Description:
The chain is of the alpha+beta class.
Amino acid sequence: MKNSITLIFCFLLLMVIYARPTIAQEVVVFDILIVRYDRIYKCNCNFINAEDESQYDYVDGSIRGPTQWGNLNPEWAACKNGVEQSPIDLLYERVNIDPNLGQLQINYKPSTALLKDRGHDIMVEWTGDAGSIQINHKSYKLLQSHWHSPSEHTIDGLRFSLEQHLVHQRTDPILGNITAVIGILYNIGKPEAFLSKLEKPIKFIIDGQTVIDVGRVDPNYIKISNKDYYRYMGSLTTPPCTEGVIWTIDLRVRTISLNQLESLRAAVHDAPNARPLQPLNDRKIFIYKLKHREDYVESS
Ligand SMILES: [Zn+2]
Protein backbone atom coordinates (compact mmCIF):
# COMPACT_ATOMS: atom_id res chain seq x y z
CA MET A 1 0.00 0.00 0.00
CA LYS A 2 2.81 2.31 1.03
CA ASN A 3 4.57 1.58 -2.28
CA SER A 4 1.39 2.37 -4.22
CA ILE A 5 1.06 5.74 -2.48
CA THR A 6 4.71 6.49 -3.19
CA LEU A 7 4.23 5.58 -6.88
CA ILE A 8 1.12 7.78 -7.16
CA PHE A 9 2.99 10.64 -5.46
CA CYS A 10 5.95 10.28 -7.84
CA PHE A 11 3.57 10.15 -10.84
CA LEU A 12 1.80 13.31 -9.68
CA LEU A 13 5.16 15.01 -9.06
CA LEU A 14 6.31 14.16 -12.60
CA MET A 15 2.99 15.50 -13.98
CA VAL A 16 3.55 18.79 -12.17
CA ILE A 17 7.16 19.05 -13.40
CA TYR A 18 6.26 18.35 -17.04
CA ALA A 19 3.19 20.57 -16.93
CA ARG A 20 5.40 23.62 -16.14
CA PRO A 21 6.63 25.56 -19.17
CA THR A 22 10.13 24.49 -20.09
CA ILE A 23 12.89 27.02 -20.71
CA ALA A 24 12.41 26.40 -24.44
CA GLN A 25 8.70 27.21 -24.18
CA GLU A 26 9.45 30.36 -22.23
CA VAL A 27 11.95 31.43 -24.89
CA VAL A 28 9.31 30.92 -27.57
CA VAL A 29 6.87 33.09 -25.65
CA PHE A 30 9.57 35.73 -25.21
CA ASP A 31 10.35 35.64 -28.94
CA ILE A 32 6.73 36.26 -29.75
CA LEU A 33 6.76 39.30 -27.50
CA ILE A 34 9.93 40.59 -29.13
CA VAL A 35 8.40 40.20 -32.57
CA ARG A 36 5.37 42.03 -31.31
CA TYR A 37 7.44 44.90 -29.96
CA ASP A 38 9.55 44.92 -33.09
CA ARG A 39 6.42 45.40 -35.18
CA ILE A 40 5.22 47.87 -32.63
CA TYR A 41 8.22 50.17 -32.53
CA LYS A 42 8.60 50.13 -36.28
CA CYS A 43 5.00 51.30 -36.35
CA ASN A 44 6.35 54.13 -34.13
CA CYS A 45 5.52 55.23 -30.62
CA ASN A 46 4.49 53.01 -27.81
CA PHE A 47 2.10 50.31 -28.76
CA ILE A 48 2.81 49.13 -25.24
CA ASN A 49 -0.55 48.33 -23.73
CA ALA A 50 -2.06 48.64 -20.29
CA GLU A 51 -0.45 45.42 -19.00
CA ASP A 52 2.99 46.81 -19.84
CA GLU A 53 2.62 50.35 -18.58
CA SER A 54 4.76 49.68 -15.53
CA GLN A 55 7.79 49.15 -17.79
CA TYR A 56 8.40 52.89 -17.91
CA ASP A 57 6.77 56.09 -16.72
CA TYR A 58 6.87 59.85 -17.17
CA VAL A 59 7.56 60.81 -13.56
CA ASP A 60 10.58 63.09 -13.18
CA GLY A 61 13.10 61.42 -10.86
CA SER A 62 11.35 58.03 -10.95
CA ILE A 63 13.46 54.87 -11.42
CA ARG A 64 11.43 54.27 -14.59
CA GLY A 65 11.27 57.96 -15.53
CA PRO A 66 12.37 59.53 -18.84
CA THR A 67 16.02 59.99 -17.79
CA GLN A 68 16.23 56.27 -16.96
CA TRP A 69 14.47 54.81 -20.04
CA GLY A 70 17.80 54.01 -21.70
CA ASN A 71 18.94 52.02 -18.64
CA LEU A 72 15.80 49.94 -18.30
CA ASN A 73 16.26 47.68 -21.31
CA PRO A 74 19.23 47.12 -23.66
CA GLU A 75 16.76 47.47 -26.56
CA TRP A 76 16.06 51.02 -25.37
CA ALA A 77 19.68 52.24 -25.40
CA ALA A 78 18.86 54.92 -28.00
CA CYS A 79 16.81 56.72 -25.31
CA LYS A 80 20.15 57.71 -23.64
CA ASN A 81 22.74 57.27 -26.44
CA GLY A 82 20.77 58.65 -29.39
CA VAL A 83 21.84 61.95 -30.95
CA GLU A 84 18.69 62.59 -33.00
CA GLN A 85 16.02 62.22 -30.37
CA SER A 86 12.49 63.65 -30.17
CA PRO A 87 10.71 65.78 -29.10
CA ILE A 88 12.55 69.07 -29.65
CA ASP A 89 11.88 72.76 -29.32
CA LEU A 90 11.07 74.15 -32.77
CA LEU A 91 12.96 77.39 -32.37
CA TYR A 92 11.89 79.68 -35.18
CA GLU A 93 15.30 81.38 -35.35
CA ARG A 94 16.92 78.07 -36.18
CA VAL A 95 14.61 76.90 -38.94
CA ASN A 96 15.63 76.78 -42.58
CA ILE A 97 12.94 77.68 -45.08
CA ASP A 98 12.91 74.99 -47.75
CA PRO A 99 10.50 75.60 -50.66
CA ASN A 100 11.60 72.30 -52.20
CA LEU A 101 9.72 70.34 -49.56
CA GLY A 102 6.48 71.15 -51.38
CA GLN A 103 2.93 70.75 -50.17
CA LEU A 104 2.23 67.68 -48.08
CA GLN A 105 0.34 65.11 -50.14
CA ILE A 106 -2.33 63.54 -47.94
CA ASN A 107 -4.62 60.80 -49.28
CA TYR A 108 -6.59 59.47 -46.32
CA LYS A 109 -9.79 57.46 -46.52
CA PRO A 110 -12.26 56.01 -44.01
CA SER A 111 -11.44 52.55 -42.77
CA THR A 112 -12.19 50.12 -39.95
CA ALA A 113 -10.43 50.84 -36.68
CA LEU A 114 -10.01 49.89 -33.05
CA LEU A 115 -9.66 52.24 -30.09
CA LYS A 116 -7.04 50.83 -27.71
CA ASP A 117 -5.91 51.69 -24.21
CA ARG A 118 -2.11 51.32 -24.19
CA GLY A 119 -1.69 52.39 -20.60
CA HIS A 120 0.22 55.62 -21.13
CA ASP A 121 -2.02 56.72 -24.00
CA ILE A 122 -4.99 55.72 -26.10
CA MET A 123 -4.73 54.98 -29.80
CA VAL A 124 -6.93 54.67 -32.87
CA GLU A 125 -5.46 51.78 -34.83
CA TRP A 126 -6.71 51.39 -38.37
CA THR A 127 -7.17 47.74 -39.24
CA GLY A 128 -8.01 48.42 -42.87
CA ASP A 129 -6.48 50.70 -45.51
CA ALA A 130 -6.84 54.27 -44.19
CA GLY A 131 -4.74 55.78 -46.98
CA SER A 132 -1.31 57.36 -46.91
CA ILE A 133 0.89 60.45 -47.18
CA GLN A 134 3.61 61.09 -49.77
CA ILE A 135 7.09 62.23 -48.75
CA ASN A 136 9.80 62.51 -51.43
CA HIS A 137 7.56 60.60 -53.86
CA LYS A 138 7.32 57.70 -51.42
CA SER A 139 4.05 56.52 -49.92
CA TYR A 140 3.73 56.06 -46.16
CA LYS A 141 0.66 54.15 -45.01
CA LEU A 142 -1.39 55.53 -42.10
CA LEU A 143 -1.37 53.04 -39.22
CA GLN A 144 -2.53 54.74 -36.06
CA SER A 145 -3.07 57.96 -34.15
CA HIS A 146 -2.63 58.77 -30.45
CA TRP A 147 -2.36 61.78 -28.15
CA HIS A 148 0.11 63.26 -25.67
CA SER A 149 -0.82 65.81 -23.01
CA PRO A 150 0.73 68.29 -22.61
CA SER A 151 2.37 68.61 -26.03
CA GLU A 152 5.77 66.99 -26.53
CA HIS A 153 7.13 69.46 -29.11
CA THR A 154 7.30 73.12 -28.24
CA ILE A 155 7.48 76.17 -30.51
CA ASP A 156 9.90 78.87 -29.38
CA GLY A 157 9.75 77.29 -25.92
CA LEU A 158 5.96 77.37 -25.80
CA ARG A 159 4.22 74.15 -24.76
CA PHE A 160 0.64 73.41 -25.81
CA SER A 161 -2.25 71.54 -24.15
CA LEU A 162 -2.17 68.51 -26.43
CA GLU A 163 -0.28 66.91 -29.30
CA GLN A 164 -1.72 64.36 -31.69
CA HIS A 165 0.54 61.96 -33.57
CA LEU A 166 -0.41 60.30 -36.83
CA VAL A 167 1.91 57.39 -37.42
CA HIS A 168 2.74 56.20 -40.95
CA GLN A 169 5.10 53.61 -42.29
CA ARG A 170 6.58 52.30 -45.48
CA THR A 171 8.77 49.25 -46.00
CA ASP A 172 11.96 49.92 -47.91
CA PRO A 173 13.52 46.83 -49.55
CA ILE A 174 16.97 47.81 -48.19
CA LEU A 175 16.35 49.97 -45.12
CA GLY A 176 13.36 48.06 -43.76
CA ASN A 177 10.48 49.88 -42.08
CA ILE A 178 10.64 53.67 -42.11
CA THR A 179 8.32 55.69 -39.90
CA ALA A 180 6.88 59.13 -40.66
CA VAL A 181 4.87 60.94 -37.99
CA ILE A 182 2.68 64.02 -38.35
CA GLY A 183 2.34 66.01 -35.12
CA ILE A 184 -0.54 68.41 -34.53
CA LEU A 185 -0.56 70.85 -31.62
CA TYR A 186 -3.72 71.92 -29.80
CA ASN A 187 -4.82 74.60 -27.39
CA ILE A 188 -8.15 74.84 -25.58
CA GLY A 189 -10.96 76.32 -27.67
CA LYS A 190 -13.57 74.94 -30.06
CA PRO A 191 -14.17 71.16 -30.09
CA GLU A 192 -12.10 69.09 -32.50
CA ALA A 193 -14.09 67.08 -35.08
CA PHE A 194 -12.16 63.81 -34.98
CA LEU A 195 -12.32 63.53 -31.18
CA SER A 196 -16.03 64.42 -31.27
CA LYS A 197 -16.60 61.26 -33.35
CA LEU A 198 -14.80 59.20 -30.69
CA GLU A 199 -16.57 60.66 -27.67
CA LYS A 200 -18.52 57.49 -26.75
CA PRO A 201 -15.72 54.93 -27.19
CA ILE A 202 -13.36 57.15 -25.16
CA LYS A 203 -15.94 57.01 -22.33
CA PHE A 204 -15.83 53.18 -22.55
CA ILE A 205 -12.04 53.36 -22.15
CA ILE A 206 -12.48 55.58 -19.09
CA ASP A 207 -14.89 52.93 -17.75
CA GLY A 208 -12.18 50.28 -18.04
CA GLN A 209 -12.47 48.70 -21.50
CA THR A 210 -9.11 48.28 -23.23
CA VAL A 211 -10.06 47.55 -26.86
CA ILE A 212 -13.17 48.83 -28.63
CA ASP A 213 -14.22 48.16 -32.20
CA VAL A 214 -15.13 51.65 -33.43
CA GLY A 215 -16.15 50.63 -36.96
CA ARG A 216 -15.15 52.88 -39.84
CA VAL A 217 -13.17 55.96 -38.82
CA ASP A 218 -12.37 58.73 -41.29
CA PRO A 219 -8.93 60.32 -40.70
CA ASN A 220 -9.98 63.21 -42.95
CA TYR A 221 -11.77 64.65 -39.90
CA ILE A 222 -8.32 65.51 -38.53
CA LYS A 223 -7.43 69.00 -39.75
CA ILE A 224 -3.90 69.03 -41.13
CA SER A 225 -2.34 71.87 -43.05
CA ASN A 226 -0.47 70.62 -46.08
CA LYS A 227 0.74 74.16 -46.79
CA ASP A 228 2.74 75.06 -43.66
CA TYR A 229 4.80 72.65 -41.64
CA TYR A 230 8.10 71.92 -39.89
CA ARG A 231 10.22 68.94 -40.97
CA TYR A 232 13.10 67.35 -39.14
CA MET A 233 14.67 63.95 -38.50
CA GLY A 234 14.10 62.51 -35.03
CA SER A 235 13.01 59.48 -33.08
CA LEU A 236 10.11 57.76 -31.43
CA THR A 237 9.23 59.72 -28.28
CA THR A 238 8.66 56.54 -26.28
CA PRO A 239 10.93 53.52 -25.68
CA PRO A 240 12.74 52.15 -27.63
CA CYS A 241 13.33 55.75 -28.90
CA THR A 242 14.29 54.43 -32.36
CA GLU A 243 15.82 57.09 -34.62
CA GLY A 244 15.29 57.65 -38.35
CA VAL A 245 11.74 58.95 -37.89
CA ILE A 246 10.63 61.63 -40.38
CA TRP A 247 8.79 64.26 -38.36
CA THR A 248 6.28 66.70 -39.83
CA ILE A 249 4.80 69.20 -37.36
CA ASP A 250 1.84 71.23 -38.52
CA LEU A 251 2.60 74.95 -38.16
CA ARG A 252 -1.01 75.72 -37.38
CA VAL A 253 -2.05 75.25 -33.78
CA ARG A 254 -5.56 73.74 -33.60
CA THR A 255 -8.15 73.72 -30.85
CA ILE A 256 -9.91 71.12 -28.73
CA SER A 257 -12.54 71.75 -26.09
CA LEU A 258 -11.70 71.51 -22.39
CA ASN A 259 -14.12 68.54 -22.14
CA GLN A 260 -12.26 66.70 -24.90
CA LEU A 261 -8.92 67.30 -23.21
CA GLU A 262 -10.30 66.17 -19.86
CA SER A 263 -11.68 62.97 -21.45
CA LEU A 264 -8.30 62.14 -22.98
CA ARG A 265 -6.59 62.84 -19.67
CA ALA A 266 -9.15 60.73 -17.76
CA ALA A 267 -8.51 57.83 -20.16
CA VAL A 268 -4.86 57.79 -19.03
CA HIS A 269 -5.72 58.39 -15.34
CA ASP A 270 -4.81 62.06 -15.63
CA ALA A 271 -1.12 61.26 -15.93
CA PRO A 272 1.01 63.51 -18.17
CA ASN A 273 2.52 61.52 -21.04
CA ALA A 274 4.97 63.94 -22.69
CA ARG A 275 8.67 63.11 -22.93
CA PRO A 276 10.95 66.03 -21.96
CA LEU A 277 12.65 68.03 -24.74
CA GLN A 278 15.75 66.48 -26.28
CA PRO A 279 18.89 68.29 -27.53
CA LEU A 280 18.81 69.39 -31.16
CA ASN A 281 22.57 68.71 -31.57
CA ASP A 282 23.62 69.51 -35.14
CA ARG A 283 20.29 68.74 -36.76
CA LYS A 284 18.52 71.15 -39.06
CA ILE A 285 14.85 72.03 -38.77
CA PHE A 286 13.20 72.80 -42.08
CA ILE A 287 10.03 74.70 -42.65
CA TYR A 288 7.71 74.79 -45.63
CA LYS A 289 5.32 77.70 -46.14
CA LEU A 290 3.16 78.10 -49.20
CA LYS A 291 2.55 81.75 -48.31
CA HIS A 292 4.00 84.01 -45.69
CA ARG A 293 1.65 84.12 -42.73
CA GLU A 294 2.14 85.43 -39.23
CA ASP A 295 -0.90 84.00 -37.49
CA TYR A 296 -0.89 80.23 -37.20
CA VAL A 297 -3.07 79.91 -34.13
CA GLU A 298 -6.75 79.16 -34.70
CA SER A 299 -9.04 81.56 -32.96
CA SER A 300 -11.26 80.03 -30.35
ZN1 LIG B 1 3.47 59.80 -29.90
